[in-house]
Amino acid sequence: MGSLGESKFLVVDAADNEKWAGAANGLFIEVLCRISPLENETYEVVRPYAGERLPETVEEVQQYKGVIITGSGRSANDDLDWIERISAMIRTIVSQEKTKLVAICFGHQLVARALGGRVSKQDLFTLQPERIVPSGELWLANLGGGSQLLLEAHGDQVSIPPPRAEVLATSSTAAIESMAIRSGNGHGSIVTWTLQAHPEMPARLFVDKVLPFVSKRMENDGVGAREKLLSFEPSDAGFIMSEMKKFLVSGWPTTTPEQS
After folding, report:
1. What are the helix and strand counts (H, E) for the chain?
2. For the whole model, what pTM was predicted?
3. Which residues of the chain have pLDDT under 50?
């Protein structure tokens, strides 16, 4: 990509459970650094659950080329101060056009809730490879028409998107798998891309750190889940991570080819 000036990114670590011990943010940094490295590319990590301060103003947000919100064992509906502070940062990001936001799983759900959507609890926990099917023009225009096989791990999902969201993809276990959010009143540039799936996460970590704690909440008590996870082929995950890096750096066109 060559030199793009300041290439500083912020990772908002929302995984406050000790079992993760920084793994969530470390995975994003490790993967993104290897994809089309930028000159002077740096990453900062903030842990709001530990009381660390998030960007609060547009000026503070725009110190970063891009922001990533990780997954979490918490629900976006939990009444916790640090979750509300992330919500406030989300609203600040979508009020401007310069800095882009990528939000994964919990982050995807929190973007929906912070902007007026609804997040609902599932009857069963989802922990499996899931085929993500494009359903929006922005996905088709920027990522192509093929479906993507990605890992999922969630007990909640977005049930109603916020008014300004464009739903990009769906799956058999989550109708709203991905969203795009435009800046300002919803007619500006695309500043946020969210995804329910986990393209950054190796299947082995889900087997070791998630499956033992959620199997009783899964269909058939999680029988066969380990084998499905460990047989997962991550080629689509690599493609999505590469596209996320491109989005954080350059964004997407405001219009689709059909609109231009």
Report:
1. 9, 9
2. 0.93
3. 1-5, 256-260
